[in-house]
TrEMBL record:
Its EC number is 2.7.4.3. It comes from Kribbella alba. Consists of three domains, a large central CORE domain and two small peripheral domains, NMPbind and LID, which undergo movements during catalysis. The LID domain closes over the site of phosphoryl transfer upon ATP binding. Assembling and dissambling the active center during each catalytic cycle provides an effective means to prevent ATP hydrolysis. This is Adenylate kinase. It is an enzyme of class 2 (transferase). SUPFAM superfamilies: P-loop containing nucleoside triphosphate hydrolases. ATP binds at residues 11-16, 128, 173. Belongs to the adenylate kinase family. Catalyzes the reversible transfer of the terminal phosphate group between ATP and AMP. Plays an important role in cellular energy homeostasis and in adenine nucleotide metabolism. Monomer. It holds the Pfam family ADK. GO terms for molecular function: kinase activity. The gene is adk. It comes from the Bacteria.
Amino acid sequence: MTILVLMGPPGSGKGTQAQVLAGRLGMPAISTGDIFRANVADRTDLGNRAQDFVDAGEYVPDQLTNQMVRERLAAKDTRHGFVLDGYPRTLDQVEVLDELLANQDRKLDAVVVLDVDPDHLVQRLLHRAELEHRSDDTEDVIRRRLQVYNEQTHPLIKVYDERGLIIPVDGTGEIDEVTARILHLADSLENRGS
Ligand code: ADP
């Protein structure tokens, strides 16, 4: 049973690496950004309420986000653990996650923080914009997403560091190189206690 959080600014590759790590550990990767995008595409009630925030690069209000995560974490496939990608992102979300895990008698094992030079982030995101056409990958919205991350999410590193949960990983280089660094970490997590 392993519960991990993948944290890092937009463009740090946390989505890609969360998938790899979850695959390796045989657990689901839960990406709040992916869930919002799927709901927007399907025009669900949640999607309609989230769309303007996502498109503007603003965070979806905590209440909506927390309720969605509450429901997702109640699903059976999370019983052997999971990797969270893009949640929690605010102090309020940290508290809700604490409470959700405490209610299930579970606890967070580690928060992996992907570290990438800020100058590279915008370049990476603009490159991805050409490939994926995400509605929030325009230059203005990218800059806003980086700003929101720095203001609201970066402070969470200190909160989790005080709990001894932070594992910094160098996110620069090729996807495979970063994956190798994280797989090394996954091995040590799998072997822990055995
Ligand atoms: P990125 O980290 O590259 O900006 P994500 O796919 O993780 O991309 O998130 C895309 C958008 O989804 C965010 O800009 C925000 O609008 C919304 N979102 C995702 N996760 C959260 C969250 N935990 N709280 C609030 N909004 C979120």
